[in-house]
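Sample pair:
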Amino acid sequence: MRRVGKAIPGIFRNEPIEIFIPVIKRDLDIFEMATGPYVFVRSSNFSSLLRLKSITGVVALVTEGDTQRPSKAIQVEDSYVQGLIKQAEEEHRKRAIGIEVGSFVRVLNGETRDFCGIVEIIGDGKAVIRITLRTKSILLETPVRNLLNLSHVPKEQRVYYFSPLVEDLFRDYPDGATAMVEEDLHLDESVPMPEHVEEAPTDEPKKHSRQRTVTALVKKLILIEGLHNPMQIAKEVVKALKSKDIKAPKNLFIVYCIIKDRLRQDHFAKIDPTIGNYREIIKKYGREYKFSAAQIAKIDPDLGIPQNTLEVCKDGRSREARQKSKIQPESEVKKLAGKKHETKKRKKASTDKCGECLHERKSHKLSPKGAWMRCTDVSDHTIHPWVKGKNSGPCWCKRFKEKEK
């Protein structure tokens, strides 16, 4: 199916094509079709149908007398194909019947394809699945139609890799099979380190799975426990950080950003897809959703995590030292303020001298905006460095950006 999908654009280019594969059963490495090995294809470019044989997995075009000529292709009534489509759609719908909270299911498509897990929450055609591996636990949000109901599987067999091999194991070795898979039914909290590696002593837990993080906890609080108040979520996060159940971030500003981002993506974006940022959430749903890293820090002042990480300059100074060096004494500030007042630019009068020659403003041309342009007065050029005392020719002042000639 994937190879056909990738090859079609190169074969048919701008010509329309439709392929129907009547899958009626789907499971681990199982694609059972209603018509055996036959699929149905139709296109306006009939001559290109024969090129589908170049795709690995496609055997031939079904033709009269096995001539393999597109003109001899056997045509199928549309009413027959429409009946197969309805049958496939019905089987597709039945796959998700009976799935509810606590059901054991298999993921059919996606990055976690063929993994099995337990439904934690369900609603609006979507479900949140917890897939418990050996060293981590995955929370997956996916449409219900992407799941296969396996609630008939006994609890002692509900491992993430459940397959016919697991069933055969319990059938052939009923006494020892339970002990073999027991360790895979639960999350292994601590993964042993290699013996030759010596770890430095630390207050943090030796090993954190990727699900024992602030992000994973906040997502769980929003999706599973239904918490939507940011300060309630922050209190639960601080409580977990205090007990060291999750890995501590560098500062509480990171916690603040994670809570905002997950609330926007996992809750408010589903209610209103037009929401683009957190400010719109505060404006639309109230100021109860407004909070800050400082408020999170006040929940437990003895937590030991800074509100913001101190940045160090290249010369080794802290941010506080850098800011302190910028603070000037009051006397120096007054002195600088006085100079600024003295050198304040004033509006030029018509009697002001040019600065490069002794001509007044009225002796110069003016731009449409009133700016000074080159000098037009040919008298008294004695101080002009280019004229050197000669009283003939125009005055070309450099300050007015004229081209030097």
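The chain has four domains: 2-94, 104-184, 214-299, 353-405.
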